[in-house]
Amino acid sequence: MDKNCMPSLEQLNITDVQYQSQKIDAPHLSGLRLNVAAWLIETPLIGSWIISGLLRSNKYTKMLSETVIPDAPMFIPEFPQQEIEPSVKCIDEVSPPATRVSLALDCLPQFTVIPRMQERLDLPFQYWRIRDYAHAYRTGLTTPSVVAERLISAVGESQKQFPSMSLFISFDAKDIQQQADASSRRFDEGNPISILDGIFMAVKDEVDCLPHITRGGTTWMHKVRDVKRDAVCVARLRECGVIFIGKANQHELGSGTTGNNPHYGTARNPHDPNRYTGGSSSGPAALVSSGLCPAALGTDGGGSIRIPAALCGVVGFKTTHGRTSCKGVLELAWTVEVVSPIAGTVEDAMLVYAAMLGSCPDDITASRPMPPCFPMLRDSLSDADNARVIGSLRLGKYTEWFNDVSSLEVSEMCMTALQLLIDTYGIQLTEIVLPELEEMRIGHVVSIGSEIANAINPYYMKGRKDICYEIRSTLALFRAFSSSDYLAAQRLRRRIMHHHLEAFKSVDVIVTPTTAMTAPKIPKEALRVGESNLELAGNLMRFVVAPNFLGLPAITVPVGHDKDGLPIGLQLIGQPWFEATLLRLAFVIEELCAPFKKRPAVFYDLLKSS
Predict the structure, then answer these.
(1) How far apart are the first and last CA of the chain?
(2) CA 151, CA 143: separation in Å to the nearest integer?
(3) Cβ distance 607 to 401 under 8 Å?
(4) Are 510 and 396 in contact (CB under 8 A)?
């Protein structure tokens, strides 16, 4: 067979690039059909035949084995040096977390007490911010101990309702109350540690957080992996006084996009409990969306923070690869995954990011991080300098890709948000072309799949019988990728990195919908054993892959709802290390789209009486 040869980067003519809509050829399986399929795919001869056919029909074989890729492999994201962003405050990443949080706080607009109308469905909905909690504590309106009691009661209520919200894998009311009482004493003594003191946060079950064990959404991982100390990100937040409320639910082994988990119950979307949250950081997004905490930690290897944040109507922030330490995280896909915050507001995402940022010495890769910066988020409309910086930003939109959605409501709502930016700030929207998006998707799947398979291999036979059928099928596919496939994927990584860096020569930020659809319904038959729906996964992952495969920063911010009242998120993809630019732009989008926000159907107002 003649080998297909990709053109060299110098020979590629961008005007000849044609967008190819993603088509996934795979059956939708749940219930008994999924059980049988998992058994067959794990059977040596039959399974190899099934997987071979699946890979060939979805162009993996042609791309990985029958194509010459004329580029050297890039095994981990590598970035050129960047200039410092405009109108920012740069900090030393090795400074104490509380100091960084204080500096980030200085960059925020002046705090004003705004009456919150969470119960008035006819008014725009607003989440309580971290600064609202801090104000309530400092003025004696309430205490962390009182809020802890309300939280514990609300979690109990969420478990008893039908359907159960299934938000936690591990929850210890006594530990929460003890942390809250210690925080209350600090306030009584006039010595709160930082603005984050007394702030409640959850962590995804892949993040080590004492006294809890880490299961990664399984029933067995804690038996082969001990938790001896907090993850670095948790330890930094704890230094600032954060109260950790438990291990949030997730898709098993982080290997799915819906949040389905037959072991602990599937986390429910607060905007409609009969729909998925998205995954794999399902519990963290649902907890923030339902008001049980203003922020939570998730991990993102294939949109796992941004997908659930978008579907649940909150902010999901993925940092540049290497910006935050993954030490103490069940890191299953080390070249594509980061640990980052999910929050109710952009300013809360920024405060949490300020506390947790900073790589450890053994995290430093080929691209040494640039100094972290915070945007000066003053009153964007009245501050001429800030408005000028926002207005000078150039946004890139690949229209054919942008419009490749399951429902036009998604792209139209995202375009409405962008038009508000253009009308308010005179921001420039430029048409761009990003070649080889299908090749990027294949390269990412092979990379994340191979790395997950490698991470699980030492424990696979011991834990296989306790893994749900969906993930057993997924792991069988991942384990089928060869070393040659992985090398081909890394060659693709270098090409795709080139294409994106070329785009960033003419634009500052790439804009897309976060997902190609709003939250899908949960099939009843999927609750007991899970489901395999690769077409659905494709719709949820269509726009989120580049930040993982290339290590770029990205953020999703809610911009409205569809006709069923389900949230829609707009994604901003930034240049390497340009987190400040994304936070600045997301902040003004959040302001402009505030009138479109709606109260989730399931919401717990922990500051109601304060």
Answers:
(1) 72
(2) 12
(3) no
(4) yes
Please calculate the CA angle 316-194-204 and round it to the nearest 5 degrees: 35
Query: Is 280 tagged catalytic?
Result: yes
Q: Please tell me which residue in 30, 166, 204, 282 is annotated as part of the active site.
A: 204
Q: Answer whether 498's CB lies under 8 Å from 9's CB.
A: yes
DSSP state of 2: P
Q: Cα(296)–Cα(285) distance, rounded to whole angstroms? A: 7
Residue pair 87/385 in contact (Cβ under 8 Å)? The answer is yes
Annotated active-site residue in 158, 184, 280, 367: 280
- CB atoms near residue 605 (< 10 Å): 15
Q: Which two tokens stand for residue 519?
A: 């939250």
**Which one, of 498, 597, 519, lies nearest residue 9 by Cα?**
498
Number of neighbouring beta carbons within 10 Å of residue 157: 12
Residue 605, φ and ψ in degrees, nearest 5: -95, 95
Rg, Å, the chain Cα set: 23
Q: How many residues does the chain have?
A: 610
pLDDT along the chain (610 residues), means of 10: 80 92 94 95 95 96 96 95 90 95 96 67 86 97 98 98 97 98 98 98 98 98 96 98 98 98 98 98 98 98 98 98 94 94 98 93 66 85 80 97 97 98 96 98 98 94 91 96 98 98 98 98 94 97 98 98 98 98 98 96 89
Sign of the Cα torsion 8, 13, 16, 22 reads positive
Structure tokens at 412: 């139209």
SS3 (DSSP) at 533: coil
Closest C-alpha to 327, from 287, 303, 361: 361
From the list 255, 282, 304, 380, the catalytic residue is: 304
Residue 140 CB partners (closer than 8 Å, separation 6+): none
139: enclosing H helix or E strand: none
Q: Which H/E stretch holds residue 22?
A: none
Residue 304 bears catalytic tag: yes
Structure-block tokens of residue 573: 């993809």
How many angstroms separate the CA atoms of 288 and 254, rounded?
19
Q: Do 552 and 539 meet the contact criterion of CB atoms below 8 Å apart?
A: no
Diameter of the chain by CA atoms?
77
Q: CB 145: neighbour CB atoms within 10 A?
A: 18
Contact in structure between 202 and 112 (CB atoms under 8 Å): no
325 is catalytic: no
